Every structure is written in structure tokens, then in C-alpha cells.
């Protein structure tokens, strides 16, 4: 374990995802926005350096060095901007069991226009872990590979523009179905749904409705604890709501049309606009999209993890793993049994208060790397 030192510079390293064989990981440097324009770089040494060396040569270098001074390599370089977060350095770990347990230190540094190099206040001590095992089959999760897609829609306009490239950098698992009433009851001990009881055959396999964002998050936390206690939770992963970007990536499943079934949506393809008499349907009653996910259009609007201030908060330009943490509303996606087809499109966004409950809102879960 490298020795700690009191933070002096405001520059810190942060891991974006667990370092696991056969998967991708990455890291960034958080920094004061005031040093925008400085050049930065990431350096690595392996094996890890067990100590820390204070370095102070006025006008040349300042900080604490946590790399082996005689054995290191440069991983990546760039220029800092005013966002306060450096560009991410991402890397893929080869699927080689011999790498399990390998360790390394990674440290960042930046250089201003006068040539002064400042070291980050911490390093990242990375240990390669075994490949994450798939969630148990009983949870009905689908493996999703990283990739890039065009998020948003010119046809929808409003808060669905600008259309922009989004890269999902980490593999994760997405629930094949919306969380059912039976699943929710088993984990939380209650069922808040409207569409339950004798009037709704097979109601335990209909999606849970009238569940708030806060209760959906509580379900995910309880599921994480349950699976961790049973030894079934992949290393460095958690169960949570999908981010808005993860949701649209999975809904589109490689398509660029307004719906993942093409240029229109009709009854027989999804449960929308009272297609089955104004109620939810049993999950999986309609064909899955190209990635094996059911009911991404219709049935219930699905909570996402992101907050929302109900403004068009898409930024122009390419982004990786976007997530909006602050805002009074919570994002929901996908349309439902009472919405028209236009409001079930892949890009449609809607916001509700985190404690709101409606008979047309539910959720599905992902098993994904723990968010920073």
C-alpha cells in the first residue's frame, strides 16, 4: 500500500471501472478548472511502488511521487479543459487468467506553460481481478457489449437534441424484462402494483407498477446486498437502474430508426395506447429487440438513474458514459400502455419527481460496474 499524503494540489486520480480480465477499464484525473490548458499525462509502474517520495524543485516539479522512479512508462497524454475532469484513458485487459493478481501503480501529472510539473495527490493501485461471472440465470440478464451509438432524435427535437455520439465503455448486463411483481415482492416484501389480483391473470409476471424512483433504487440496493451475501455478485459490480444513455443504447440495439422495430410501431409489436385494453401485459409477451430485450417500447415507462432539470441538457460533441447526477426530477424512458406510439420512441425523455408513483411507471435493472 503506497503511503498517503495530505492533498495539496487538488488533482486526484479516479478509476472508472474495475480492472477485470477480458473487460475494459479506465481512469481520469479530476483537477481544478483553473488549470485548463495545462498538458497532462498518466504514468504507470509495475510492480507497485510501496512508498511515496515528496518532490519539490521550485519551478520544475511539485508533489508526491508514488511510482518507481527507475521503472515506469507513459500511458497517455492530453490537454486539460475547464470541465475539471481530464479525458479518460481507457484500456482493455486481455482475457488471460495469468494476469489475475497482477498489480500496477498509475499516477497523473500536468505541466503548465512555464514548465512546472505538478503530481496528483494520489495514485491508483490497480490489481487485475478474475473475469466477472454472469449473474444467475434466474435474474434473466442479457450481456451487453461496449459500443458507440447516436443518442437523441431530430424528429423528436426539443429535449432529444442535439443528436450526439455516445460511447458506452464498459460491458454490463441488462434485465431482459421489466422487474415483475413477483420479483419485487420476493425482494421487498410488498407489491404496490395496480394491476394485481384475480382480475389480472398471471399478475406476478406482469411488471411492478406504482413504484417510485426511490423505491426502485431501494430494490436495486437490496438485490445487490442479497446477491453479494450469496457470493453471486461479480467483483466490482452492483445492481442499479440503467443510466439514461445505457437505456437508450439497449433500446436501440444498433438501430437508428425512431423505434427499434423500424419507422413505425403498431399493436402486436408492443403494449401501447390501450392495445390490450388499458393494462400492463405479462413481460416478454412481445418479440425481443435485436439484443434480446423485451418491452423496451411500451408496457411501462421505465425509471433511469439520471437526474433531470427538464431542460435540453444534451451537450454537443461526443461523450463517454454520460450521467446527470443533479436535478429535481428523475429520468424515465420507453413509453407505456397508455401512451401513443410517438411517445414510445427510443429517444423520448420524461421526468418525474423521485417519489412519484403511477400505474404506468416501472423499471428494469442492470448489473454494471459500480459508478464512481
Textual characterization of the structure:
This protein has 372 residues and is mostly beta strands. The protein has 2 domains: 12-127, S-adenosyl-L-methionine-dependent methyltransferases (Single Sheet); 137-369, paralog of FGE (formylglycine-generating enzyme). 9% of the residues lie in helices and 27% in strands. It contains 3 helices and 21 strands. It has helices spanning 181-188, 213-229, 244-252; strands at 12-15, 24-30, 39-45, 53-57, 61-65, 73-79, 89-92, 103-111, 117-119, 124-127, 141-144, 147-151, 164-168, 172-175, 237-240, 301-308, 319-320, 329-333, 350-352, 361-362, 366-369. The strands form 5 sheets. Strands 3, 4, 5, 6, 8, 9 and 10 form a 7-stranded mixed beta sheet that branches. Strands 11-14-21-15 form a 4-stranded antiparallel beta sheet. A hairpin with a 5-residue loop joins β8 (103-111) and β9 (117-119). The radius of gyration is 23 Å and the shape is elongated. The two termini are 21 Å apart. Residues 1-7 have low confidence and may be disordered.
Number of structural domains: 2
List low-pLDDT spans.
1-7
Q: According to CATH, what is the class of the largest domain?
A: Alpha Beta
CATH superfamily of the largest domain: paralog of FGE (formylglycine-generating enzyme)
Count, helices? 3
- CA radius of gyration is 23 Å
Distance between the termini: 21 Å
> Under the CATH scheme, which architecture of the largest domain would be assigned?
Alpha-Beta Complex
State the helical fraction: under 10%
Q: Tally the beta strands.
A: 21
Shape: elongated
In this structure, how is the largest beta sheet organized? Answer: 7 strands, mixed
CATH fold annotation of the largest domain:
paralog of FGE (formylglycine-generating enzyme)
Task: Classify the beta-strand content into a percent band.
Answer: 25-35%
H/E topology pattern? EEEEEEEEEEEEEEHHEHEEEEEE
| Secondary structural class | mainly beta
* Arithmetic mean of pLDDT: 93
